[in-house]
Amino acid sequence: MTDTDEQQGDLDRHFGEQGARLTYGSYLRVAQLLDQQHLESDPPAHDELLFITIHQVYELWFKQLLHELTAAREEMFSGDLWRARHLLARVVAIEDVLIRQIAVLETMTPQDFLVFRDRLAPASGFQSVQFRELEFLSGAKDPGYLDRFRGLTADETARLERRLAEPSLWDGFLHVVRRAGLPADNDDEVLASLLTVTADRSTYGQVWELAERLLDHDANAAMWRSRHVLMVERQIGTKSGTGGSSGSPYLRSRLGLHYFPMLWELRSHL
């Protein structure tokens, strides 16, 4: 065996259990991940682990959604519409998981939640920075959230401000419409251009398909909000939220939110 063969053999042993340079646990940081669930209740409430785990999983998926949606927006600006649609299809698949995940949380009875709910105040899902980033990126930009948030770090504030200032998914879509040779400088022009797209899908098929994927994202967000408010009402009725919000009345006030209202209005003109 030559020295080269021996060196190649050494390299091969870097993979799998022989090399042991990288393991499943070390790559995924499983030990650190499993050390992030710290209960506040004393004695420990059985369902608090479920509550923490569900919300931490949401935050991990929110991170992935921000990664995919930011990339989809950039692909719209670069002109790679296939890639943008592909990423948006992944977003919709992830959101389907988030909607179904609510059913797991609903296995917690109101009585079991009340055992540790008081320990959560003033923490609240209202304070999820990544969730607000997703809304801002999708086009639902409300600077007032920066004033209503409590306990934001400097980094979190900077992230929200950046999302408010940067182009949204809708801005990216309008760029696609203009690049297709259609006007999109005001709502009337956008509606007229979208009607042109719907009437001539042989020419504007990629634009139409992209619009449909954006609508899927918008519809899933609406379904998540609807399932979420029902879950909250099932758990605490009309009690105030732990963060000081009005609870389900506030959540119900947001059920009519659409990221892309023009895509919904278009249906009325077909």
Could you describe the 3D structure shown?
The structure is a single chain. By secondary structure, the chain is mostly helical. It has 2 domains: 1-35, no CATH class; 45-269, Methane Monooxygenase Hydroxylase, Chain G, domain 1. It contains 15 helices and no strands. The chain has helices spanning 3-12, 16-19, 24-28, 30-33, 48-78, 81-105, 110-114, 129-138, 144-148, 154-165, 169-179, 187-199, 201-236, 248-253, 261-266. It starts with a helix and ends with a helix. The model has no long low-confidence stretch (mean pLDDT 89).
Topology, please?
Layout: H1 3-12, H2 16-19, H3 24-28, H4 30-33, H5 48-78, H6 81-105, H7 110-114, H8 129-138, H9 144-148, H10 154-165, H11 169-179, H12 187-199, H13 201-236, H14 248-253, H15 261-266
What's the gist of this structure?
With 270 residues, this protein is mostly helical. It is 68% helix and 0% strand. The termini are far apart.
